[in-house]
Amino acid sequence: MPLPQSDEEALAALAVACAKDPFKFVMAAYPWSEPGGALEKHPGPDDWQADCLKHVRDSLSRDKPIRMAIAGGVGPGKSTLMAWLQDWAMTTSVDTRARVTANTGPQLFTTTWPELLKWRKLSIWAHWFRNGSRQVRSVDPLHSDSWRCDPITWEDTTPEALGGFHNQGKRIFQGIDESSSVPIPIFDAFEQALSDSDTEIIWVILGNPTRATGRFRECFPGGKKSHLWWTRAIDTRTCRMTNKEQIREWIESYGLDSDFVRTRVLSQFPKAGSTQFISAELFAGAADPARDAYVGLNDPFVLGVDVAYEGDDKSVLRARRGLDARSLKPLKFRGLDPWQLAARIAEHHARHHFDAIFVDNGGIGAAVVVRCRDLKLPVRGIDFGAAADRTADGQGIAYFNKAAEMWGFVKEWLPFGMVDNDPELESDLTNREYGYGMKAGRDCIQLERKKDMKSARRGLSSPDDADALALTFAEAVAPSDHSGTYLPAGAASGGMESDYDPLPYPGR
Q1: What are phi and psi of 443, to 5 degrees?
Q2: Which of 256, 257, 202, 209 is nearest to 233 (CA)?
Q3: Which 8-state DSSP code applies to residue 142?
Q4: Which of 415, 419, 412, 426 is nearest to 473 (CA)?
Q5: Please, what sign has the CA dihedral across residues 224, 227, 229, 231?
Q6: Is the pTM of this model over 0.85?
Q7: Fold observed for domain 280-471
Q8: pLDDT per residue over 401-457, tens digit each?
């Protein structure tokens, strides 16, 4: 039974007793099982919620931030957990600074923030704070500015505005709701708050695992940041508050292994995002060191060169011989002018005798192509924006432009090919999204533009590595004796068309 609010000394003592134990706080703060109350039918947190609260209790430290990532489908009480942790963090430590955000302003102010206020009003410590539609502050005038929680909206163009959040020597709480759809720059801005030393820092991110890429996905097993995060994927079939009849209907309608059920019921990330062009599973198979693909004696040796233009972009040289794009490691350069890059290409060719070299012809790439021709290299400039001239094998799938066509051939090749397990290549291949554009009266696959990938909303790098690999599929190249002679199919071969298949795998 909660203590009466009039007994301020007892309340203060209880708050101190709960300062290191959010589970104890949650059990004490709210009117669980109280007859006629809002929680009359609820004895306390669900089992998965209790596990999360106890993890914070057991991990709380001034030396190491707590990073907690929760993936949950429909209705298990994710936002409720965030509300409890924020309420505990604020109530039990004077001058705590807290902030929460979500994927959109409407989500934040119609769902996340109201849930936080709902639980705060149920607390026996509710009168310690003044609740507002845009902030929660201590009622103590000496602490009203330093002891507070704010809902934070973000702008695509100004993620840096979220920086500068510090509370040295005290406590910080920050939460992100519906994290799958929150851009990478927002995560990176929130991460700046982890730099304070001798400070209790609790960072909670949660959401429906709807996207197979992005920072939220990277925090879970298999992701490049998973070593930093404590994670929990909630099987909603076992949760007290979920609609079991609705779950049963979904499983019967879509199947247990469908992405619909994986994301909404099992809280597992989809096998492929709905707009993700190349899945993480495709890359993982091609990068598996156990895969040993067949390479034909006469498979041509092809080099793709993506040319960097500015900033953090890099020029990448990637080679492929049939199904093998792994054996010869890629070369990556920054800051080379066209003549320097052409010299590197010539040096690479002198060592390996490529049958064809396809170079990105856009921007300063045109100068690289010209210089490579001067050096008598078997080079061909490729315009990513040019019209596509091939369709997906056996499917008649049309591509909006040359870039989409080349990436389409990469996607067809990956189930059988071999690539090096390069994190940059993986990121480039699996993060690019796609849609459809109308051309010549039909829907055509259209890749996400590079400038959109690099925007503040997406926060990704230019897909230089993947583009270099894609360039090795720019044109069909005739079978080769590896003498270094460039023979495009149908050219310099007595006028005969070659039937060479650039994707030599079974079933083609």
Answers
A1: -75, 130
A2: 209
A3: T
A4: 412
A5: positive
A6: no
A7: Nucleotidyltransferase; domain 5 (3.30.420)
A8: 999 999 999 999 999 999 999 988 988 898 888 877 777 677 788 888 877 776 655
